[in-house]
Amino acid sequence: MLLLRTIDRHLFFSTAKMVGSLVLLALCVLLLERSLRIIEITSASPAPLRDATRLMLNLIPHYLGLAFPAALMIGTIARMSSLSRLEQITALLSTGYSLVRIARPFLVLALLLAIGSLIVEGYLQPLARYSYREAAHLAKQETVVGAFQRGEFVSFGDRTSFVRNVGENGEIEDVFIYERTSDGGVRVLTAPAGLISLDEETRQTGFRLARGVSVEASREGGVYERVDFDRLATRTDREIEMFRSRGNDERELTMGELLRGEAVEALPEEERDDAAAAFHFRAGRAAAILFFPLLAVPLGLVSNRSNQSGGVALGLLYLVVIQKLFEAGQGAAAAGAIPPWAGAWPVVLLVAVTSGALFWRSAYTLAPPPMETLTRGMTLPKLRLPFGRMRSA
């Protein structure tokens, strides 16, 4: 009995390490693909590294939802294939250790990933999606500091400003400010140095100028006042537009909010079917993960010392088909063509039936491994040439 528990722990933790590595690899690849878009968004930001990091972190829950099923499928198939090639599966079966018992650690891992997927896609992903949109909105705005860093004239209200250089900590050089006064006159501020900052409460950009000159001219154009100052503080009237509140569409609502219905009622009437379909879509994807080991375990079986492969490719193809079926069902449910539950749960039933049938065939019949049967069926027949073999000279 202790041996059986030891084997279970070995299979569970070795597969979990492989699945975790695959999840990290998938995150790196997917985030790298999105990095070009993020660089484009944050290029005009005064703090591009901070904004890019925030956007990247908010993308992680979205990509985790995509990585969990693929990592589980690939990890299970690869682990079973390794055990088969080393004849460890044969040794276990010869001692009465059934395929059902071998699959138990993989099913436990699938249960944990299904719960994780429900948490990630049901709760973390909607909140992260809103945070990503908020961060992208703020980063895309043409902030004053960002424009100054590019050496541009910046106009806001009745004021136009120019700064030759902006340092890392907001230090500015060669400042020029032109503004119209309330009586129709003009005021010009110049300073060789100063500091630019953003007020977090008022969202306004302020200048602190040093050793500068202020010149005011009347409406008629005559100079009537000049002031040399050591320190002068001024600020713009331009505020950064704040982002909207969360819940603009169903993808920003958690499963709890979708279930309660209060946030759904705040949506436009034409989007309420989308909300119901989104709830079943998230729950159905998490439920489908539970049955993936029943498909992956047979696909990983190969004959002893066999070179047969392709289980991973077939498993990934299966995942793509299932994902497209989920998306088609969600689209039909959102359009009102079918009930909301019918867009997801028939797909879960299809996954359960196909995976269960393949596992039953491998566990309770004497049929050869599925990949070996498939490979034999795809083998081209040998052709016999009518003119026989060619003789060598």
TrEMBL record:
List residues traversing the bilayer.
Answer: 12-32, 63-82, 102-124, 286-303, 338-360
Query: What InterPro entries does this protein map onto?
Result: LptG/LptF_permease
Instruction: Report one GO cellular component.
Output: ATP-binding cassette (ABC) transporter complex
The alphabetized UniProt keywords are: Cell membrane, Membrane, Transmembrane, Transmembrane helix
Name the major location.
Answer: membrane
List, in alphabetical order, the GO biological process terms annotated in this UniProt record: lipopolysaccharide transport
Any Pfam family hit: LptF_LptG
Q: Enumerate the subcellular locations listed in this protein's record, separating them with semicolons.
A: Cell membrane
Q: How does it sit in the membrane?
A: Multi-pass membrane protein
Under PANTHER family, the record lists: SLR0882 PROTEIN-RELATED, YJGP_YJGQ FAMILY PERMEASE
Please state what the protein is called: LptF/LptG family permease
